[in-house]
Design goal:
Layout: E1 8-12, H1 17-28, E2 32-37, H2 40-52, E3 57-61, H3 67-80, E4 86-89, H4 107-135, E5 138-143, H5 156-176, E6 181-188, H6 194-207, H7 211-216, H8 231-238, E7 249-252
Parallel strand pairs: 1-2, 1-4, 2-3, 4-5, 5-6, 6-7
Amino acid sequence: MGKLQERVALVTGGGRGIGRAIALALAREGARVAVTARTRTELDEVCAACRAAGGQAAAVAADLSNREACRRVVEEVARQLGPVEVLVNNAGIGSSADPKPLAEFDDDFWDRSLAVNLTAPYLLCKAVLPAMRGKRWGRIINIASVNSRLPSPHAAAYVASKHGLLGLTRALALEVAREGITVNAICPGPVHTVMNDRRVAYDAERRGLSFEEQASSMTLIGRRLEPEEIAPVAVYLASEEAAAVTGQGWNVCGGIAMS
């Protein structure tokens, strides 16, 4: 029997990258996994892979920059699979979408970044808490970033939102620690994803390096991480084994942040 047998999990940004890897890892441990993102075709593929891994799965397409969508997603997951017991807030907008110095930063991009990276997790946490409190059991896992601890240039909205997400993690953990609910963050370094490819290309051009030179310079281990290297930490934090772990930010960053 898997570590998460019959637990209901919701993974946002679950169509690809880190979210996809976490969804599959949870399904392999027996969870009933719901994934949400904007692209339905990607979600359907992930659900098929989750079912092939032995889990139940449901796809809920949504744009989480819309506040009302956050509530609707949680309600739809409860209708299809049951109340959410494990929430993985992974959806995010990276700096690669529009990297600029702060003095030139696009205000609309700032607003959208904070809406998806910080406000959506806040709203989703609020939406799942009643059911978790009713069961006196829950796991909330926020996918922050090494940028929740350290800044990067030309990424003000991303850095600010991820610092905020780590703060939200700690604030909520403090409030629900006696109710059987844990709240933790995973802080990945650069991960080999489509979104990060664009950031590597931008920084390589900015620094006068090749793509490969930039990618290999980003961590102490000389490479970017793979999404599958983040997923085991999420499985652990979602499990009974992590019942005493809360309010923590777990660095999985190839040695960038050593604290």
